[in-house]
Design goal:
- The complex is a heterodimer of chains A (about 230) and B (about 220).
- With about 230 residues, chain A is mostly helical.
- Chain A has one domain: Arp2/3 complex 21 kDa subunit ARPC3 (Orthogonal Bundle).
- Chain A contains 8 helices and 2 strands.
- Chain A is globular.
- Chain A starts with 9 loop residues before the first helix and ends in a 12-residue tail after the last helix.
- Chain B has about 220 residues and is mainly α.
- Chain B has 2 domains: about 120 residues, no CATH class; about 70 residues.
- Helix content of chain B is about 70%, strand content about 5%.
- Chain B is built from 9 helices and 2 strands.
- In chain B, a hairpin with a 2-residue loop joins strand 1 and strand 2.
- Chain B is extended, with a radius of gyration of 23 Å.
- Classes of the chains: A mainly alpha (about 230), B mainly alpha (about 220).
Chain lengths: ~230, ~220
């Protein structure tokens, strides 16, 4: 769920907006370095993909269903810089064109659902990649670990923000346990879906997966002679 | 591409609100909502004034109230949370219909509903009266980095193309007898999402090549 207007007080919203703006600035520079003039069309289309997958419903049980948040997925597929830009643009468009997520909470939403899921998810993904064997088949499991970490991190950060700028006195530990409890489940769903999506892309076009570059680089072209 | 039809929330019209420059509308929305959020909950008169301002703008825009009211459903999760607040918040309690509710929770829940509703209504009005193209130009005039506005432009432009692609995949799955019922069916949907990523990425590459062949160098010319 997107944070609406009036959920956090105005000073907290302004601080998160500043943090979000700084993060976006770094991501713009990084994406420019990585993608050059391909940034706009590629990040634009990947943002559209993230938006569309958020509409893809994964049935859970008894008619309920969940959907992907996509921060860690985008970070693994296109890298953290372009990933953050995609998530940011998705959140801005949702706020301005679909009235989903408050305009004053836009900075908060970008920090919670963009910055933290992308950066946190990617950091855990890279750490997992270093720990796991360096094989192509390990990219998807590492991405799944990044996905669950990104959701839990985002929920924990939400509780912290609420403790600072929330408008209602809710005992901190009650909220923390409730939010983390729920979000571990959501995170497991996110991890499974991220695993499935990343492994299906790795199976078909591993060269497109940003997070698979390091393991792909060791493959060499072999020229085998057929003995006559 | 760049078809003249608006997005889903757009309501065609020629009112003063429709014709006002987009950057002014965005700046007004942001400052209006900052003031609303900063207003303490007990100042009921102030909230009545905010609602009156919005009501005047809606009347001026000619967008039917029912059109906006129906789209308020997007707020449902917020309402659910606001209803929970009096039960989980601490502080002095009041007895209401045999339930003991937290007083600050009630106040904050009410405040959240009022502020979030004002926010959703104001954003809906902006979306209903502004074409995506004008919105992007407005953001650019407000000094949002041009690169970010370009990405947003591509997203807005290809939103329907990619959603249609997703819908065609759904049709294809269902015409082969597939219905997603429980998590056992996730691998199929996951592969669809993977295929959608590859198609979107490759479309991005094709668009980039098409732009280069027309002289694109990373900046937008007008």
């Amino acid at each position: 769920m997107h944070v609406p207007d009036g959920f956090l007080d105005a000073p907290t919203s302004l601080v998160t907006a500043t943090v979000a703006a700084a993060g976006i600035g770094v991501a713009l520079k990084g994406a420019r370095r990585e993608l050059d003039d391909r940034t706009a069309p590629l990040a634009g289309l990947v943002a559209t993909f993230v938006f569309a997958t958020q509409m893809l419903n994964f049935p859970v049980a008894g008619g309920t269903s969940g959907h992907l948040m996509g921060g860690a997925l985008a970070a693994v597929l296109v890298g953290p810089y372009a990933g953050l830009l995609c998530l940011t643009v998705v959140l801005v468009v949702q706020s301005l064109l679909f009235a989903d997520g408050g305009i004053t909470a836009l900075g908060t939403n970008v920090v919670l659902m963009g910055l933290l899921t992308v950066v946190g998810g990617y950091a855990v993904f890279r750490a997992a990649q270093l720990a796991l064997p360096k094989r192509l088949s390990m990219v998807a499991p590492a991405a799944a670990l990044g996905a669950i970490a990104s959701v839990v991190l985002s929920a924990a950060a939400f509780v912290l923000l609420y403790a600072v700028g929330g408008v209602v006195p809710i005992p901190f530990d009650t909220l923390l346990t409730a939010m983390l409890g729920v979000h571990v489940f959501i995170g497991v769903g996110e991890a499974v879906i991220t695993f499935l999506v990343v492994s299906s892309v790795v199976a078909v076009r591993p060269d497109l997966v940003h997070g698979a570059r390091r393991v792909l680089a060791v493959r060499e072209l072999e020229t085998r002679l057929v003995s006559s | 591409m760049g078809a003249p039809h608006g997005h889903r929330l757009h309501f065609q019209g020629h009112s003063p609100v429709h014709q006002a420059p987009a950057h002014l509308k965005i700046a007004f929305l942001v400052s209006f909502m900052l003031v609303v959020v900063a207003t303490p909950v007990p100042w009921l008169a102030a909230f009545a004034a905010y609602a009156a301002v919005l009501a005047v703008l809606v009347a001026l825009s000619g967008v039917p109230a029912l059109y906006l009211a129906r789209r308020l459903v997007i707020e449902t999760p917020v309402l659910a949370f606001a209803v929970l607040l009096p039960f989980i918040a601490t502080g002095p309690t009041v007895d209401l219909l045999g339930l003991s509710l937290s007083r600050p929770g009630l106040v904050a829940g009410g405040g959240l509903v009022v502020k979030a509703t004002l926010g959703v209504l104001a954003s809906l009005l902006l979306a209903a009266t502004t074409e995506p193209r004008d919105l992007l130009a407005g953001l650019e005039r407000l000094r949002v980095p041009s690169q970010l506005v370009q990405i947003m432009g591509f997203m807005v432009r290809y939103l329907d193309v990619v959603s249609d692609e997703l819908r065609r995949m759904k049709t294809a799955r269902e015409s082969r007898g597939f219905t997603a019922r429980d998590p056992r069916h996730w691998p199929v949907i996951g592969r669809s999402a993977g295929a959608l990523f590859i198609r979107s990425f490759e479309r991005g590459e094709r668009v980039h090549l098409a732009m280069i062949s027309r002289g694109y160098d990373g900046t937008v010319r007008r």
